[in-house]
Amino acid sequence: MFRRRDGHHAGRCSASVKVAMQQKEEVMAILQVDATPSDGLQHYKLAIDGLVVAMKSDNEGAVAVHGDCGDKSRHVFTYTLVGPAGETLSASVKCGDATVLTVSNIQIYPEGEPYAAGSEGFVL
Amino acid sequence: VRRSRAGGALLLAAGLTLAASPAAAQQRTTDTPAGRFGVVEGAELQITAGTQDDNASIALAIPTGPALADSFALMVSTPLRGNDEAMPASLDGLANGTKFTLRWGHFGLGTPRSDTRADAIAADAREACRFRRTHPRPSDPDLPAAGCDSEPSNNVVHDYALPVYRRYLAHVIPYDATDFGVEASIAFKDFDWVDPATLVPQSDRRTEWSVTGHFAQYLRSSKTAFTLSVGYERSYEEVDEATFCPSNPNNIVITCTTARGGAPSRNESLLVTAGLRHQFMRRGELLNFAVAPQVTYDVLDDVVGIDVPVYFLSNSEHGLTGGVRFGYRSDRDDHFSVGVFIGAAFNILGGG
């Protein structure tokens, strides 16, 4: 399952950075993504706001999005799985220490084989 | 003729993991080649050993796992029982020698996208889910314990909007996934034979090699896969054993020799194979009917083979597992064949 959580301001989030773009400062939040694929899953791809989450072989990754932890900005998490029917993936997204999204047990069904896909909204 | 009879019960099951790179892989946020390389840096080398088909093997691989698109492996295998007796079911001409294999594979999967049409389908499915909570029917799927808004969109659309589930997937996934790779092998094999005229033993080592490429594309809108593979192999085939006796004009007791009476002959093949795997659906529901035709052309021998399995027998555990198979071979007197098969499950991913 996933939970939308209203973010809470706790000062400037440690996971955010300021970047200068076109002489304007923008705040970027670095989101940490942790995935748990089942053993037989062949491949998966995750994205937040259209940006690919660079996952490592240990199924952890990160992506930078516009916004700040706790600023209640809206974002979209999208996913695609490839594998045989019955395989699953769970994932969680963290901004700083706060878990902003949990998606549990995304399943590949016989009718969708070899795919599963979807999108979930969340706020920082 | 010498035959090695090393114990076939040898079972190697060792696993060793070497850290190729400390956990210093940089996190990158784009899908650039540099980003992917950074990800590969975080992988670990793995050495594994095992036995299969009477071959001992050792593999050096970067176990990338499902998160990464590329995979690499270097494998070494050798027959446990000597060159003569290893006989794998794969009909791999190189399997009977010490073989080195380098394998690379790539899985192409588009970045999932947020799509308004997909969002509308998911919203309708959640609404249907909420309606079913207050108006349940016996045929309904189990309601999500945590509520209709807590389930992943993929699962809710499947459970409450099945007729448009494939369309939903096609909206989220930007293009069909592809899986392609190349495998190159080289093998060294010792051959023994006798000169049939003099019965003098001969031996030589021959080098065999093969290169194979494969490609598969999986459609989003239907349960369909297209496959293509091209493989070239140069191997050597031993002549059959025969019994040779020296001339015996005086009719005395002589010693005969059973051996191969000639040098191995070179055998080349270039196979091009195209296939389709498809399971039929109606209104989003799978039917117990699938086909997996495959056409193979042996370019060097100008032979065509066609195999058309039609699946319509199913069991509850493994789906479609049987049916009728139609065959054609251009080099046979009886070009066409037909038979019943049971036990081979239909698999959209091919299963090897």
Short description:
With 124 residues, chain A is an all-beta fold.
Total count of helical runs of at least 4 residues of chain B:
4
Oligomer: heterodimer
Distance separating the two termini of chain B: 37 Å
Q: On the 0-100 scale, what is the average pLDDT of chain A?
A: 85
Q: How far is the N terminus from the C terminus of chain A?
A: 18 Å
| Chain pair with largest interface | A-B, 52 and 62 residues
- Biggest beta sheet attributes of chain B: 14 strands, antiparallel
Largest sheet composition of chain A: 6 strands, antiparallel
Order of helices and strands of chain A: EEEEEEEEEE
Secondary-structure-derived class of chain A = mainly beta
What's the Cα radius of gyration of chain A?
A: 15 Å
The count of β-strands of chain B is 16
Task: Give the helix level of chain B as a range of percent.
Answer: 10-25%
SSE order of chain B, one letter for each helix or strand = EHEEEEHHHEEEEEEEEEEE
Percent of residues in beta strands of chain B:
over 45%
Globally, the shape of chain B reads elongated
Instruction: Count every beta strand of chain A, where a strand is a DSSP E run of 2 or more residues.
Output: 10
What structural class results from the helix and strand content of chain B?
mainly beta
Q: Low-confidence runs of chain B (pLDDT<50, min 5 residues)?
A: 1-44, 83-91
